[in-house]
């Protein structure tokens, strides 16, 4: 069973870039959580291992240790053999990052690794200009693989939203038109101006 469930607080992109550069979660590896057999993954002590099979078919297992990084280990083999009272649960690379972040005492980030978002204007069907948009959202895929979305508000800036899903399922009317970051910035100025004129 593949676990992909990183429920930890969001943090800055800088912290995520630090994690990516230092921990180097590599897609060529398969990642596993090692935990006590009677515990749910993430409840109680959990270690992260990774496995790579080289061109000769030899298996290489490594364990992540705070302060040391990835070191050779037999923990994964032992857990899979059932001889140690531990179990191995496969993780997605993104979830492995989250577990490592928690182990190192760093909250994980759900912001895009490259800092880039896709922007959409929420328009009535008969409108075409961003100046007439009902709202603007930005979307991205988190490092953990989740589809994320924010909407812009005057009082709080970018906040979590589900507008794209609401429009796609006809719970809300209108359509979403992809726009540039510059157009999104212009919409923010329009919203701010409207607020002060009210």
What features would you describe in this structure?
The chain is an alpha+beta fold. It folds into two domains: 91 residues, no CATH class; 80 residues, no CATH class. The chain contains five helices and ten strands. It has a five-stranded antiparallel beta sheet with strand order 4-3-2-1-5. It is elongated and about 70 Å long. The termini are far apart. The N terminus is likely disordered.
- Number of helical stretches of at least 4 residues: 5
Integer tally of domains: 2
H and E string:
HEEEEHEHEEEEHEH
Sheet with the most strands?
Answer: 5 strands, antiparallel
Q: Based on Cα principal axes, name the global outline.
A: elongated
- How does the helix and strand content classify structurally? alpha+beta
- Proportion of helical residues: 25-40%
Whole-number average pLDDT? 79
Number of strands: 10
* Rg, nearest Å: 22 Å
* Proportion in β-strands: 25-35%
Distance between the termini: 54 Å
Q: Which strand order do you get reading across the main beta sheet? A: 4-3-2-1-5
Please identify the oligomeric state: single chain
Unreliable stretches, pLDDT < 50, 5 or more residues? Answer: 1-23
